[in-house]
Amino acid sequence: MLLATLGGLAAAIWAFGSTGFGSVIAVAGRIGFAGFLIYCLYSIGVFAILGGAWLAVAPGEPLDRLGRFTWARMVREAVSDLLPFSQIGGIVVGIRTLTLHRMLASRVYASFVVDLTTEMAAQLVFTLFGLAMMVSMLVQGGNAVALRPLILGGTAVMVAVMVMFFTAQRPALGLAGRIAQQFLPGSVMAMTGITDEMRRIYGQPRRTALGFALNLAGWTATAIGSWIVLLMMGVHISIWSALSIESLIFTLRSVAFAIPGAIGVQEAAYALAGPLFGLPAETALALSLAKRARDVGLGLPTLLAWQFGEARAVVRDVRKVSGGRQSLPEIPAE
Predict the structure, then answer these.
(1) pLDDT exceeds 70 at position 209
(2) Where are the domains of the chain?
(3) Given a cut of 50, is residue 57 above it in pLDDT?
(4) Residue 244 DSSP code
(5) What string of DSSP letters covers 50-99?
(6) Helices (H), the chain
(7) In this structure, how many other beta carbons lie within 10 angstroms of the beta carbon of residue 215?
């Protein structure tokens, strides 16, 4: 992961260096503070959609817990984007955030697996849409040909991963249960609980379909957010071009899951893909910079609040242990 991160940093330096960092900053500055605030608020709305997708595949959880699922999704993204972890680290922390709210652990784990599956399926649909939009340019040759391996290769990887994820969910849980049985007493009951919850979720296809639809809406809304940012910068491109660009960026970011925040991958992709849609490289990188600034603007307060919540949980557990010790009856001395 360290080597991948260093490679990503080198790609980011190349992208900004070859374009001119000053020109990128000049374009990004057009959005202004008010525009940046609007973008952050819009992104919070997108997180609510994604939180709703997770809640939709968690049977038994009331609608008033949408805020908790939205918060868990925000923590997951903040950890993945800002901390030196891969996306897997963000996933672990996001799940823990829900379990700290005294939610049934087996339901949290099972609903996450289903939510991740529907999220990947929705991203695949969105990527194939962007790929279809770019087919005409790919067959025309020119600079677009250089992106053919990235687009087709990234889509193929996504398809393969999604198929493996769909087919291996239950066998993987069974294998994990057998391994854990050798080391962790009671783990079989936990794995059985997760399997039962997954069976319950998949037994309600309407919930799974709703989760897929909301995840697809989340991907689309994120891309529309980038189009809005470009408009606030004074750049006018069609919304279809913006959706196509973002579908490519999302695909490459997913393939580069081992690199924290996909650093460098996002910047290089914008620098290469932007000009194909009439978007100058400095403008495309300004959009990338705005997205990074949004990640920091939302991510830092999220991480601070997450750490505060973790500290409160530790204090609460310590008090429980201390209270339990004080309540123990004294044993009279002989």
Answers:
(1) yes
(2) 2-306
(3) yes
(4) H
(5) HHHHHHHTSTT--GGGHHHHHHHHHHHHHHHHHSSS-HHHHHHHHHHHHH
(6) 2-19, 21-28, 32-56, 66-82, 87-99, 105-140, 148-181, 187-202, 205-232, 239-255, 265-273, 281-326
(7) 28
